[in-house]
Design a protein that fits this description.
This protein is mainly alpha-helical and 262 residues long. The protein has one domain. The chain has nine helices and four strands, in the order ββααααααββααα. The protein has a two-stranded antiparallel ribbon.
């Protein structure tokens, strides 16, 4: 298949219904594998009491908790009690892969692209994909593909430069302070020494996926300008999701698969 002399071979040239079916099958297979691994880890933890039965990304990093001292009661800071995660300095490559796997398998990985596809359908963007089920299938498959590519790039960059890929909710009580924290967590990442650096992994993943998606977007949208626009929109969506995650009680996040500080 050629487009103005450029050869483009892409799964997005398949019928929209088949694209969506392939994406659903892949996500379902990954979800089944994830559940199987989770059950195996649970069985291993049960058979080995010394392991404590806790997830590798849910361990409490605060020494005072391990020593048995009681943490202060903070009724006005509902997010503070949720900060039980393995410290960055102890994350292994396997731990990082677990975080990556959880990130791409949570239902939000489908909900986010589905909402984005709905907005694209409403705006008829790009117009070449049309309306109806076929147009929506193109858009949701595109969104899921970009999400998978983005998280894969982010996983690799974060492992190389030592960033913490997880989102950690604020321990503050004020609305503005918590909102500021969510924004800072989007554009910066924590390092092993407790400092912060620009979120290079997020930027690389978001904009990298936007430019790679030029391979399946129509020619009118397969430009650097449109790629930058898609990347910036995705980055803004990350801010919105972090604000949502910051203020919505943790128990409701189990419904969309967010159970760890990611």
């Amino acid at each position: 298949m050629t487009t103005q002399g450029n050869l483009r071979i892409s799964c997005f040239d398949l019928p929209a219904g088949r694209q969506l079916a392939i994406a659903v099958v892949i996500m379902f297979a990954l979800l089944v594998a994830d559940r199987a691994l989770a059950q195996q880890n649970s069985s291993d933890a049960t058979s080995n009491p010394q392991s404590g039965g806790s997830s590798v990304v849910d361990q409490n990093p605060h020494p005072q908790s391990a020593n048995g001292s009681q943490e202060p009661n903070l009724p006005n800071a509902p997010s503070a009690a949720a900060r039980t995660y393995k410290p960055l300095s102890e994350l292994t490559l396997g731990d990082r892969f677990t975080i990556y796997r959880q990130t791409i398998l949570r239902p939000y990985s489908v909900v986010g692209p589905a909402l984005g596809a709905g907005i694209g359908q409403w705006e008829d963007e790009p117009p070449e994909w049309g309306q109806g089920a076929k147009g929506y299938g193109h858009r949701i498959a595109s969104g899921m593909g970009r999400h998978l590519i983005s998280e894969t790039i982010r996983f690799g960059v974060a492992a190389v430069d030592g960033e913490d890929p997880r989102y950690h909710r604020s321990e503050e009580t004020g609305v503005w302070k918590r909102a500021q924290h969510a924004i800072v967590e989007t554009f910066t990442s924590e390092t092993a020494d407790g400092g912060r650096i620009p979120a290079y992994s997020r930027f690389a993943g978001t904009y990298g996926a936007a430019f790679i998606s030029n391979t399946w977007y129509p020619d009118s949208r397969a430009t650097a300008g449109w790629a930058l626009r898609r990347g910036s929109t995705a980055l803004g969506s990350s801010v919105g999701f972090h604000l949502f995650e910051e203020f919505v009680p943790r128990k409701y996040f189990k419904a969309i698969g967010v159970t760890n500080d990611q």
